[in-house]
From TrEMBL:
Protein name, entry field: Cbb3-type cytochrome c oxidase subunit
Keywords on record: Cell inner membrane, Cell membrane, Electron transport, Heme, Hydrogen ion transport, Ion transport, Iron, Membrane, Metal-binding, Oxidoreductase, Repeat, Respiratory chain, Transmembrane, Transmembrane helix, Transport
Taxonomic placement: Bacteria, Pseudomonadati, Pseudomonadota, Betaproteobacteria, Neisseriales
Pathway: Energy metabolism; oxidative phosphorylation
GO terms under biological process: oxidative phosphorylation; proton transmembrane transport
Annotated SUPFAM superfamilies: Cytochrome c (SSF46626)
Organism of this sequence: Pseudogulbenkiania ferrooxidans 2002
Length: 304
């Protein structure tokens, strides 16, 4: 916090922590001096429950107090060695970022030769290698399941990677390109330009392209609008354009759902999806393994 406001807060936190430890030590020390002489009667503290249940002022057990002393000593030593006193970094200079970078460097040194070996092989060859696929699967479960699911079948707004339907192409090179540079898919909102009725007309025409139950009159009117506006991305036949990432509207695979309500929502409000670029974070070797694993999911290898 001191980095954003002032140095006062670093000092404040340090003082609170030190005063707290010293105060607890004094309290513990003062209570440890409570002893009973032989034959002396223990007095109550004045608390009584259920008429005859009284709280006596017995001295604390020695073993119990020693545990507290040990805890206080441990806490003091910890705060000298590690961060905890405001802006004081501890004499060891430990940080979570530093530990993460050290562990990552150790892992890179251990596994980089493997990454380099597989990087020299084409994706189909790597996809057929059980060791490489096991590594690719672990990478997928670490970085990709949050969006595409543990089974890689995706969810609403996130593509299924186990079929053969691809927005930007499913060749090994295209998959690796997608993971490397990421993708940004944007469907503009047409609600304001079309109006409610025209949106419904276009939605029904889109439904007709994939053989869904639709209103024929609306579809006939929607075809004209589709040809004039939507065909620029989805093509005159509605089969999409992988160069632009425009989906095929003639099948029954829908990223957000293929009901009339959902299609109307998509046309009205548009869609905005982004797949992050992983090259800088993962490096070429890991991206290559991930691409091999993903390609294998839909090409009958043992990647699953």
């Amino acid at each position: 916090m001191s980095d954003f406001v002032s140095d006062f807060w670093g000092v404040y936190i340090a003082v609170v922590v030190i005063v707290g430890i010293v105060g607890l030590a004094y309290l513990l020390f003062s209570q440890s001096k409570t002893n009973l002489k032989k034959g002396e009667k223990v007095e109550t503290v004045g608390h009584v429950w259920d008429d005859d249940l009284e709280e006596y002022n017995n001295p604390l057990p020695r073993w119990w107090m020693m545990l507290f002393y040990i805890t206080l000593v441990f806490g003091a030593v910890y705060l000298v060695l590690y961060p905890g006193l405001g802006t004081f970094k501890g004499i060891r200079g430990w940080t979570s970022v530093g530990q993460y970078n050290e562990e990552r460097s150790q892992a890179e040194a251990k596994y980089q030769p493997l990454y380099d070996k597989f990087l020299k092989q084409d994706i189909q060859t790597v996809a057929a290698n059980p060791e490489a696929q096991a590594m690719g699967k672990r990478l997928f479960q670490t970085y990709c399941v949050q969006c595409h699911g543990s089974d890689a079948r995706g969810a609403k707004g996130f593509p299924n990677l186990t079929d053969n339907d691809w927005l930007h192409g499913g060749t090994p090179q295209k998959i690796e390109e997608t993971i490397t540079i990421g993708r940004h898919g944007q469907m503009p909102a047409w609600g304001a330009a079309f109006g409610e009725e025209k949106v419904k007309d276009v939605a029904n025409y889109v439904m007709s392209l994939s053989g869904k139950k639709h209103d024929a009159d609306r579809a006939a009117r929607g075809k004209e609008t589709f040809s004039a506006v939507c065909a620029a991305c989805h093509g005159p036949d509605g089969k999409g354009n992988q160069a632009m990432g425009a989906p095929n509207l003639t099948d029954n695979i829908w990223l957000y759902g293929g009901t009339e309500k959902t299609i109307i929502e998509t046309i009205t409000n548009g869609r905005n999806n982004q797949m992050p670029a992983w090259k800088d974070f993962l490096g070429e070797g890991k991206v290559h393994l991930l691409a091999s694993y993903v390609w294998g999911l839909s090409n009958n290898t043992k990647a699953q």
